[in-house]
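Let us begin with a simple case.
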Amino acid sequence: MLTYFGPEEKQGYVKAYPGVGTKIPLYILGSSTDSANLAAQLGLPYVFASHFAPRHMEEAISIYRNRFQPSDYLDSPYMMICLNVIATETDEEAKRESTTMQQFFLNIVQGTQFPLQPPVNSMDNLWSEPEKEMASSMTSVALMGSKETVKAQLTNFQEKYKVDEIMAVSFIFNPEKQKRSYQIFKEIVEGK
């Protein structure tokens, strides 16, 4: 991809027209330490998918930053993290809305493909203890709660990881509540 979108003098036998010379920015997206090593080696921006695979997030951030090699594309590391964000008016509402996300990840654990489900009052009858543990491990890094709670969580996250950019994913069943979650998060980021 770097060759195909790079300058004409670096093209090989196959040329990607009209891609040649467009210098489209490329990012390495990953959910493992292997992708962190590749992004560092190539000197490219790195996006870690902690919205479904947070287990290796901290190690991947460290590997990427410590092994980063400046390149024609980037002088210093540029770290992005994708996070689950459920921002609502109250912490209680966020807890209930989060059951949609929990059901989404339960689908993954069970190998089913149900569409996004509405929130429920309790997940107890929907999953077994092992399924709960597996699904919960996929969402262990999340920003969730009222505006004040999410703001505090984001502040703590940034103090610890100092990422350059955050991509938010909100598994919320109701489109209006999902939109509101993004609005609340935007207000937090903008300091409103």
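The second case is a distinct protein. As before, the sequence precedes its structure tokens.
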Amino acid sequence: MKFLLTTILMMTAFVLSSLANDKVLVFDMAEEISSSAWIHTQEALDKAKSENADMVLIHMNTYGGELVFADSIRQAILADERPIFVFINRNAASAGALIATACDSIFMSPGSSIGAATVVSGADGSKAPDKYQSYMRAIMRATAEAHPYNDGKDSSRLFLRDPRIAEAFVDEAVSIEGVIDSAHVLTLTTQEAIRLGYCEGEYPNEETVIAHVAPNAQIVRYEPSLLSDIKGGLLSTGFRGILILIIIGGIYFELQTPGVGFPILASAVAAVLYFAPLYIDGLAENWEIVLFILGLILLALEVFVFPGFGVSGIAGIVCVVASLTLSLLDNDGFSFEGVESMSVMKALAMVLLSIVLGIICSILLGKYFFKNRSTGPLAGVVLATSQDVDEGFVGVDKVKVDAMIGRQGIALTDLRPGGKVEIDGDSYDAISSCNFISRGHNVVVLKSSSGQVVVKEV
């Protein structure tokens, strides 16, 4: 009997000590759902793993944000083996409602709300086309269905949260008798969410929630670092668009004026800033970065080795566009299983739009910089004076140049396509009629153009 009593006491002490050693990792999601929120969530879940935390609590207060990052957070929450709870302290709107629905339990403070998850687009917040709403409805429904209801008491209830309510957050066409008609998007208050089984309880603050889910637990808090904030900024959709604009603009400028140097340097820096955080985050694969570099090499060959716009240039552009697009997708090596077609279309659309804007901005900036050469931004590096005949300046002797038609000479420099040729001991500015001509090769003059001789290789 004494032995049995001792065993019971030891087991009780062990259980109590286990309860006392529970760890709860807490992190805040009080921001727009963006790349920063996604990075913070990843780091918080990694810290929960390294700290051997038993559960995670998200302290949420957000009006929503970008669906692509909200969906990534949703998938990370559903894939995590630990119980993940969310405490909604005021707002869980739009993307926030999707993330909250993915959690194992939802707790709300008095006066809070959840819902209004209609997909919007544009700066004015206008409603996105129905195909986006349909996709969002499916995500919300699937997320609610990811948590089955299995308390053994109510066999008619299949899910912890009603998928129809999750759909009604998105689409005003969804009607639920006694809850919402078919004219409004659904948003629930704390008491309404509790009554409809979408929320597990009302609590005044974070501490009371923790006391409810894990009494006497040890609290571990995740605080984002400056590095993660910088990384989040570099991964933001808007900043990536600007980087693509600089990459394409720099390449365009360099193609127009080979040898300047600064445009291609700006393009290279933007490419590093574009790919580095994506590579660190596991999105950009090694082969995707190699594909981008290959595209630049092909474009360089087009400019310096094979003048004209041919196979090399087209292949280079295709490689650059493909690498920029693929680096935004969550593929595993060469496997694209699980990558949705909508994600591919969004990534390609963003890259193409940025390319078009980059070219337009490059043209406009070029006109602005060179419009007023005496007082403009490039006044110190651009020749502002003109060499007039009245002042004694003499141009190319057109009669002499025209007389060279049909004559043969030798290329003094590589013609790619411009350069110098020597005819009868005199040097002339020349341009190749089609192909690259190497130095020392024989040429024949076909015609004259703007004081230059147009030649082809003999």
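Confidence is low (pLDDT under 50) at residues 12-20. The CA atoms of residues 120 and 126 lie 5 Å apart.
Keep these points in mind for the review questions at the end of the chapter.
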